[in-house]
UniProtKB/TrEMBL annotation:
It comes from Microbacterium resistens. InterPro entries: DUF6264. The keyword Hydrolase does not apply. Residues 1-29 are annotated as: Disordered. It holds the Pfam family DUF6264. Keywords: Membrane, Transmembrane, Transmembrane helix. This is Amino acid transporter. The chain crosses the membrane at residues 65-86, 114-137, 144-168.
Amino acid sequence: MTDARPQFGEYATPEEQDRRAGRDLVTPPPAGVVAAATEPAIAAPQAGAAAEVADRGRNRPIGRAVTLALLAYGLVNVIMTVVAYGDVPRLMNQSMKLIGVEGEFTNFEAGKTWGMIASIVLILGWTVTAALSVLQLRRRRSTWWIPLVGAVVTTIAASLCLSVPMFADPAFIAYMDTVRGG
């Protein structure tokens, strides 16, 4: 059978337990005083953190201006480059002269196709960069670096697209054979 009697201290209040244990009696303050004393301590850090987050974006007007200026410059650059990619043979002939390749670019079909692909890559790259920048601007975060990274990544991708028709051009292949000693 189980003992139905309460165990020692089971029904004792915290004050009774303290008195029996020989501890000093500390009377708790009334409930309203406790809540008033603890609320400012809890609310103050939250208000400070919210103010810090709100101020974080307001304190970067130069960063916002730089981001918008870089996006505008990038847009103009993309438009001008897409126009230039419309005439890939002329662009390839200029590039081949700079390198020192004798002869002219004759891989017209591949140049046209890969010029179109490079144009699409540039347009998509700028669009993604602008979208990420605007998203971060709305979150009031630092954004000046996004257009720079976007420009580097997009330029490398477009350059790789244009290298395909150049590396397949007979004049460029002949030049590479002479450079390699073949």
